[in-house]
Task: structure prediction
Amino acid sequence: MKNILHNLNPEQLSAVTLPVKSALILAGAGSGKTRVLTTRIAWLIQTGQLHSSAILAVTFTNKASKEMITRLEDMLPVNIRSMWIGTFHGLCNRLLRSHHIDAGLAANFQILDSNDQLSAVKRLLKSLNIDDENYSPRDLRSFINSCKEQGLRAADINVNHSYNQKFIELYKLYDQQCKSEGVIDFAELLLRTYEILVHNQSLREYYQSRFQHILVDEFQDTNNLQYKWLKLISSCSGTVFAVGDDDQSIYAFRGANVGNMKTFEREFLVEKVIKLEKNYRSYGHILSSANTLIANNTKRLGKNLHTDAGLGELIKVYESTNDLQEGKWIVEETKSLIRKGINLSEIAILYRSNAQSRVIEHALFSAGIMYHVYGGQRYFERAEIKHAIAYLQLIENPHNNTAFLRVVNFPKRGIGIRALERLQNIAKEHNISLYSAIPKMTGKSLTMLRVFFKLIEEGCSKAKHLPLPEIVMSVLDMSSLIKYYQGEKEGTDRIENLEQLVNAATLFLAEENLEASTPATLIPKYQPKNVISLSNSKASPQIVENDSLPLTEIMSPLSAFLSYASLESGNGQEINGKDALQLMTVHSAKGLEFDTVFITGLEEGLFPHENSKNEDAGMEEERRLMYVAITRAKVRLYMSFSQNRMLHGQVRHNVRSRFFNELPEDSLEWSLPKSQQYTQLSNEFSNNKYVPKNTVHKIGWYIGENVFHLKFGEGVIINIEGTSINARARINFVKYGVKLLDLNVAKLEKVH
DNA sequence: GCCGGGCTAATTTTT
DNA sequence: TTAGCCCGGC
Result:
């Protein structure tokens, strides 16, 4: 038997070997969090405390769950399959497929990704003739999602606001629309699962007794529904082992609630919180910067990272006049790093928002330095792939109107908007899907629509006999998608992508361990009677066995593949053999580490971002984001800011980020001596082409200065026009935006 | 049905 | 600046 516990530090060891009770592990950046999580699972199984089927491990991303599976396979000789490891969404998908009848869903329900959801919402609004900017599709979508993430149905929401009233009504109609089309959105996967567990006692008790230990990764990212879900499924015999880092909570904007950690500690009666504070990633200066910075946050559970590695290099801070210069500086530093023998792929350039990559890319491109920008389009989100998937969805479920509208006239079949409007009216009138409405159409568009109808119909019958990869192949052919792109100027890449889809299907089947030739079969697996009888301890072998089947066994391979495609957007950029510089937002850097990290654009308004500066919570999240950025670096850390930056088509004057004041002086190495900073600053301003040279002294105000106005509050001078008596300042006020004020009239105060 | 001009708004992102 | 959206003209 492998000694899986060797080389664990005392804190890690105590976390790994905790008794099977609810526990909270505060795992700092680079403290071996994943290791603890996987080793604990292995330890529980190896010591015979739990059967592998009693374990549920939940992550947020597919990447994280894959990583966990890989590591476990390395540690354990047993079959990982019997364990439930996956993302919240993936696990809920599995549960809903197994219990689709209880959930009131068709066996082959399809999953809307957020774009699909948006078009579904748009279609709903259109069908109701709502063209009011107060009810924009995007707002409605986020309203619906945030309701679902709170566990609220339209009927549950208090009607006390006229604005709400309409949204609630629309939310209800949206759910009806989804139901009749046989589709569900991401949030619905979770909510629906939660609801069937609440409403179906035998089902609930079955899973409650089955999962005795539930391990949750990145607990700080859970939203309220996920928390409720965990609480429900773990009550009775279950316990939750939560691992997270409140200091790395950077997803509040999409519903994550850090407060869940404190609530968890209280409600799950956690006796002792274990902190993993030993960092195995970064050198001392980097770590103390992170510690000092994050100490400025008030709402923390408390944690301080330390390392055995020495202090290492100082953090290099660079101040530039403008963003172009910042780009050049990155190029120069990169070149010198290359000379030191550092691989480009070990260097990351981080920024707060995607728009900032442009200037940097330009500089790198001109210098001939290879780079790779993360966050591009993912494989399954590419237009051509979405088209192919839509055909596949229609074959599996022709009533999916979102898929229908996506491809009914793509490639062109001469089916225009007029025809579709009529079709939609017929469908609405008879309360049927667009597909079913086709035979009821009249006029010449009927002919065209019939062609499409036949196409789908033939696809359906073919799908019954062919193995998955061949279904995909035949769809590419019969849809004429390939033919269409052959006629396009830049279609080669798209054709390549489409052909990749066949490989993706083959690969998917292989991973699901299934013979490619198995025909689609659907066996009802869940027998409520059995479950009731086993509510005490051991689950019947039959049910355990069913629970561990690959998805392709409980639904058609095509259906399984489609859900995989929706839930796994596909690492758009994963295989990248080239040695290239890594460019990404700070958000997407979370969980990664690099030898060298550049944090760029450290300016007030950018990082921390303007929109977050007003409330405390927003500011603290920005600080955590900065903390995440810093802790990505192993050996070398660079930070830069620029006095001027092109933003929204305008040159903006920025002040360096407040975060610099929150870092330890001793760990920083300014590229200009600190004493010269402010002298330098005013020189730069007076040399600036936007300011007449001598205005600084004559007027007594300078660009970039923080000011306070009685009515408008705080702001920054972004430009000064005219001189002496005519002098006016363009001031960017935090709350009121840009105003032009006469400096001789306006009562401005300096803010220090 | 398609193209182009004008307008507007402008973080962060996984499933 | 630029991407996305809407509208009008062909």
Summary: Residues 60-62, 87-90, 111, 113-114, 185-187, 189-190, 221, 250-251, 253-254, 352-355, 375, 412, 416-417, 566-569, 585-588, 606, 609-612, 621, 625, 647-648 of chain A lie near DNA strand B (CB under 10 Å from a C1'). The radius of gyration of chain A is 29 Å.
